[in-house]
Design a protein that fits this description.
With about 325 residues, the protein is an alpha+beta fold. It folds into 2 domains: about 15-215, Heat Shock Protein 90 (2-Layer Sandwich); about 235-315. It is built from 10 helices and 8 strands. The chain has helices at about 5, 15-20, 30-55, 90-95, 115-125, 190-200, 240-250, 255-265, 270-300, 305-315, and strands at about 60-70, 70-80, 130-135, 140-150, 155-165, 170-180, 205-210, 215. It has an 8-stranded mixed β-sheet with strand order 5-4-3-6-2-1-7-8. Strand 3 and strand 4 (about 140-150) form a beta hairpin. The longest helix has about 35 residues, at about 270-300.
Length: about 325
């Protein structure tokens, strides 16, 4: 066996889920208290976003139970939003870098598709148990146990059953984590929820603490905030690769470059296109001149007559460097 083959015998690829399983701190899971707070944060932000997107005033219920056994906790988070369609449950909770926000230029609480799936991964890794999802879109209810196939970065439903929601709509998530802790410190879940309530006066948050204490952060306004608007990418904020991808996705055989620039980019008018054309013409002219100069350099190297070389260099002194 060649040395190179021997050195590369252990070469392996790694899925996104496997990477974050080994680097949970990058997702915020550092320390017993912070880890529990991060789990609560991911579930609560999803719940608030879901309520706002379907036009409902969010009601978020959180229950934190101490199960003993070395810091094992059950975290339950429930919302009153529109629920999750059955086919999307494995994707939402079991696949990292998947979601409805990453591809949109719109302000939102989460974007990368790492939040709730990261919480599921941490809980699965620490406790060895799947997440239990109860969801209803109004027509039927689904109870599913979901785990992440770490090697494939794919959600797997181990158990599933239907139930009659009797008019209930929303999503309830139950997760178990080990090696975490709850208290009312600055970095704890209670303080996080208190600050979340202050920043979102339209949200009602109900918390049941491990000792059974019920805390209600009531909403103080019945008015939903104006929904964010999706914006087009700005020319200064994109790269050459972004522009090529945009042309492939939005272009097509019948769309000109001008149409793509004006229709798909922010603040790019017909006037800007004309200015761009003028600048591009100058660039192309400059490139043509550079090519002519390179040809001239090659031509000079082939001339043996020194007098002729001097005459040519004198004529093109503005473009050629003296040897």
């Amino acid at each position: 066996m060649a040395l190179a083959d021997e050195l590369f015998r252990e070469f392996r690829s790694m899925s996104v889920s496997e990477f974050f399983r080994k680097n949970a701190a990058m997702l915020g899971y550092t320390g017993r208290i912070r880890s529990l707070t991060t789990i609560v944060h991911e579930g609560v932000t999803n719940a608030i976003d879901a309520g706002e997107e379907c036009g409902k005033l969010p009601n978020v219920y959180i229950r934190i139970e101490n199960l003993g056994d070395g810091g094992r906790y059950r975290i339950t988070i429930e919302d009153n939003a529109s629920g999750i369609p059955e086919k999307y449950i494995p994707e939402v909770f079991g696949k990292m870098l998947a979601g409805s926000k990453a591809h949109r230029n719109m302000q939102s609480r989460g974007q990368q598709g790492l939040g709730i799936s990261g919480a599921v991964l941490f809980c699965q890794t620490s406790s060895g148990k799947p997440v239990r999802v109860i969801s209803s879109t109004g027509e039927k209810g689904i109870i599913a146990e979901v785990m992440i196939d770490v090697e494939k970065n794919k959600g797997k439903v181990s158990k599933k059953e239907e139930f009659d929601p009797k008019g209930w709509m929303g999503t309830r998530v139950e997760m178990e984590a080990k090696g975490v802790s709850y208290n009312r410190s600055k970095y704890g879940a209670f303080n996080y929820l208190r600050l979340t309530s202050l920043a979102n006066p339209h949200v009602q948050i109900e918390l049941i603490e491990p000792d059974g204490t019920k805390v209600l952060f009531e909403r103080v306004t019945e008015e939903l905030p104006k929904p964010p608007k999706e914006v087009k990418p700005h020319p200064y904020g994109i790269t050459a690769d972004d522009l090529l991808r945009l042309a492939r996705e939005k272009g097509g055989e019948r769309k000109s470059l001008k149409t793509i620039l004006v229709k798909e980019l922010s603040r790019f008018s017909d006037k800007r296109v004309r200015e761009l054309k003028e600048k591009m013409a100058l660039i192309l002219l400059s490139r043509k001149l550079e090519t002519q100069i390179e040809d001239l350099d090659k031509y000079l190297s082939e001339i043996q007559d020194e007098e002729e070389k001097r005459r040519i260099k004198k004529i093109y002194s503005g473009f050629l460097s003296q040897a």
